[in-house]
Amino acid sequence: MFYWFGSQTLRIVYGIGDFSLFTAKAFCALANSKRLLRRIISAVHEQGTVCLPVILIVGLFTGMVLGLQGYHVLSRFGSQGLLGTLVSLSLVREMGPVLAALMLIGQAGSALAAELGIQRNTEQIVALETMGVNSHGYLVAPRLIAAILVFPLQTAVFVVVGFWGGSLSGSVLLGVDSGVYWSAVQRAVEFQDMRECFMKAAAFGFLSISTCAYQGYHSDRNTSAMGARAVSASTTRAVVFSSILVLVADYIISSFFV
Amino acid sequence: METTSHQFAIQVEGLHKGFNGKSVLTGVDLCVPSGSLFTVLGPSGSGKSVFLKCLANIIQPDAGQIRFDGHQLTFGDRASQLEFRRRCSFLFQSNALFDSLTALENVALPLEQTTDLPNKEIRKRSIEALKQLEIDEYAGHYPAQLSGGMQKRLALARAIVTHPELVLFDEPTAGLDPLRRNAVFTMIAKYKRQFGFTALIVTHDVPEALVASDRVALLNQGRICFEGTPGEFSASEHPVVTDFRDSAAALQKSLAIIRSSSV
Fold it and tell me: Which residues are bridge partners to B199 per DSSP?
C-alpha cells in the first residue's frame, strides 16, 4: 500500500517535472527557430479556421439553452428582464472559456496528439533531430504560440455567438423584449469579466495544447500499447488529461477573480 | 604508416549498449576510412541498427568512444551534436519521410530549418537534388503517392541536399527485390562518387554489399568479428564469416538432410 502510494506520487512528480521541461524546451527553442512565422500561421489555421464551425455551432446552442433555461427560472421570480445578465455573465465568466477550450481540445488538440504520435511512430521526429532540427521548436512551439493567440479569439467568437443564441431563444422565441435583453447584456459585462474570460482562455489554450503535444510527442513511452494502439492511447490520454486540466485551472483562476 | 584521425571519418572504440539488462553491443571497435563505402554486415538482431543509431547520436551508448573526423562525440552536448548533425545525414530503414509534406518540401526542410539560405536558393537546391535522383517530376507528390523505390530516392535526396560528409544508411535494401537492391546500391555508389561523402551502410544483403563496398565488417553478437576488403571477406575462413557468407550452401545442406530423412 505504502509502496504503491509512494511510487504513484513519484510518478506524478516526475510527470509534472517532465511536462514542465517539455514546455520550457519548446519556448527556449523559439530563440533559434527558423521560418517560425509561417509555422505559427499554419497552426493558427489549424486551431482557428478549421475549428471555427464547431465553435459557432456550440456557441449558438449554448446561448440558446442558457436563454431557454434562464427564462423559465427567472420567470418564476418575474425577473425575465435579467435574462441578458444571466446569459452574458454565464458565458463570459465560465461557459465561454471552458466550452470553447473543450471543443478546441476535441478538435485541434486530439488532431495534434494523433499527428505527433504518428510522427513519433514513423521515426519522423527522430529524423528531424538527426537533421539538426530542434523538434520541440519545429513541432511544438508554433502550436503553443498559436494556442495562446487563438483560444482567446475563439472564446470571444463563442461568447458573442452565445449572446445571439440567448437572444434568439429568449427574445425571438420566448418574447423577452430585445432592447431589455441587449441592454442587460451591455450593463452586466464589465472589464474585469472580460479580463477573466481572456486570461482563462489563454491559460486553457496553453495548458491543453501543451498537454496534447506532450502526450503525442511521447506516445512511444506507453509500455502497455505499441504502434497504432499507442497512438490511439496517447490521443485519448491527451483529450482526457487536458480536459481535466482545463476544469482544474478554471476553478483556480476563478477563485482569484471571485 | 602512422595514421591521423582525419583519415577516418568514424572511429569507434569499445562501444557498449544494452536494453533492460540485455547487452546488444558488447565492445564494438571499428574505423571507417574517409570517402569510403563501408558496409557493416550482420544477421538480424545482431545490433546493426543500434550500432548505427549510436553513431548517429540518436541512442546514448552505455560505454565507449565515437570520434567523427577526429572529434569525440558526446551524447547530450548540444553544440557538438549540432555540429555533427550538420555534417552527417541518416537514411532510415523506413525512410522517415514527412508524410504531410510534398517531395519538394521534404527535401527543402533541412535547408529551411538549419541554414539561412534565401527561399529561392533553397528551392533551387532542392529541385537540383530531386533532379539528380531523377524524381523531380514528382516534386508536388506526397510520399504516399510514390513507389517504394522512389521513396528511397526521395529519402536519399533529402539526405544529400545539405552536402553531408557522412551518410549513414540503415538497411537501405530491406524488403526490396534483388533488382531493386542492386538499384539502391548502384544509386548509393553513384552519389557517393558524385558528392564525395563517406557512406556507412548496415545491411544483411551479402552479395550486393561485397560488390559495391570498399570495405566490409561483420557484426555478430554485439562485436565486430571481421573487418577487411570484400576480397578478404570472400576468402576468410572465420567460422562466423563462412556461416554468413555461405548461407545458401548451408540451406542446400539442410534441405538435403530433410529430403533424405523423409525418403
Answer: B37, B167
Domains of chain B by start residue, with CATH: 7-96+165-250 (3.40.50.300)
> Each residue of B166-223: pLDDT tens digit?
999 998 887 777 887 888 888 888 888 888 899 999 988 888 888 888 999 999 888 9
Burial A206-240 (b: 16+ CB within 10 A, else e): bbbbbbbbbbbbbbbebeeeeeeebbbbbbebbbe
For B54, nearest residue in chain A (alpha carbons): A130
* DSSP state, residue A170: I
Partner-chain contact B85 A35, CB within 8 Å: no
Q: A133 to chain B nearest CA, in Å?
A: 6
Q: Which residues of chain B make contact with A119, given a CB cutoff of 8 A?
A: 98
Contact at 8 Å (CB) between B152 and B95? Answer: yes
Q: Which tens digits make up the pLDDT trace of B153-179?
A: 899 899 989 989 999 999 888 777 788
Residue of B nearest to A124 (CA): B96
Q: Find, among A74, A91, A56, the residue nearest to A175 by Cα.
A: A74
Confirm if B164 and B89 have CB atoms less than 8 A apart: yes
